[in-house]
Amino acid sequence: MNNPFTISFGRQPLRFISRLVETNEVAENFSQTPPSNQVYMITGVRGSGKTVMMTEIAKRFAEQNDWIVIELSPERDLLTSLAAKLCSRPDLYPLFVKARLDFSILGLGVSVENAAPISDIETAISRMLGVIRAEHRKLLITVDEAVNNENVRVFASVFQILMRQDYPVFLLMTGLYDNIYNLQNEKTLTFLYRAPKITLGPLNITAVKKNYADVFGLSLSEAGKMADLTMGYPFAFQVLGYLYWNERGSKTLEDILPEYDQYLDDYVYSKIWSELSETDRRVLSVIAMSGQTKVSEIRNELGMSPESFSVYRERLKRKGVINTAQYGHVCLSLPRLDTFIKMRME
User: Fold this and answer.
1) Which residues pair with 40 in a beta bridge?
2) What are the residue ranges in the chain where pLDDT is below 50?
């Protein structure tokens, strides 16, 4: 049997823990008649399982005959890509021809005799959606790792119009907090600001423990030690499982910790660290080096006022690197991030 865990981003692992509550929320909202929401944004720290959750939802709808699922890249012209992918589907192209839609000028199909060619991409998509609606079908569009660039802004603006025209279109986007925040705050895209945003937190530790116990045949006590090392962080769950699978029988859990730290560093933590401001790093360094969690003590060591510290606390919380659940306290929310920071500081 191949290793059921993976260290590759953007790919659904053989072994993963489904986020049932969040997944069902999106699926049930999209399936309602009429739907309460047609757009969902999924955000979270790197490695939090955004792509895995989006893929799981997309697969669920793709298995239903009345749904069409199209995945788009934020680095390309999304409108042209959408039109091309719709035209390339063997279940839709004959319907477009039957409806006498001529997209030949756009390079999307053969010309239709005695039909006026459509030269505008937005009009072309609107006409395609008219056919899809007549067939009582719905279209789900997914965009992974959305960013605030021209491609996404233009697409989102057109999508807003399509929703207003009552077309059966649905949008599921994932992205890092800063990218989603910047996109939602575009003045012309206020509908995205109102769209529900799901922020992915840690996985259920009990579920992580049970998965390790099932895969490796461990006692719940042994599996619990592994689960605690992940702190529920999805990428850590994959990395630790991947390494333990490869080294089982030859190395103990303690033996693979250096390699575990290296994977977290190389794949995630170095990138997260590089995207932080100098003050963000100072705050995290004090937390990691002192082991202190009490906000008042951390502020004193930093020499910050309560007002100033609250700004950075909120920002780091949104970036997914600290936990503020306990009143008056903060702590690092990613596994062995303190070890990474201490190594950097030394």
Assistant:
1) 172
2) none
Q: Which distant-in-sequence residues (6+ apart) come within 8 Å of 207 by Cβ? A: 17
Same domain? For 53 and 158 the reply is yes
- Residue 185: its pLDDT value, please? 85
Domain boundary among 240, 272, 304: 272
> pLDDT > 70: what percent of the chain?
99
What is the rounded CA–CA span in Å between residue 182 and residue 173? 14
Q: Is the peptide bond before 306 cis (omega within 30 degrees of 0)?
A: no
123 shares its domain with 209: no
Q: How many residues does the chain have?
A: 346
- Give the domain range for residue 113: 20-199
Q: Which two tokens stand for residue 96?
A: 């477009």
pLDDT at residue number 64: 96
Q: Residue 240 belongs to what H/E stretch? A: helix 234-247
Domain presence at residue 127 = yes
From 225, 226, 261, 263, select the one nearest 241 (Cα to Cα): 226
Those residues with Cβ within 8 angstroms of residue 65's Cβ, 6 or more apart along the chain or in another chain: none
Q: Where are the beta strands (DSSP E) in the chain?
A: 39-43, 67-72, 138-143, 169-175, 197-199, 322-323, 331-332
37 occurs within a structural domain: yes
What local confidence, expressed as pLDDT, does residue 8 receive?
84
How would you classify the pairing of strands 197-199 and 169-175? Answer: unpaired
Instruction: Output the average pLDDT for the chain.
Output: 93
Give the model's pLDDT for residue 112. Answer: 75
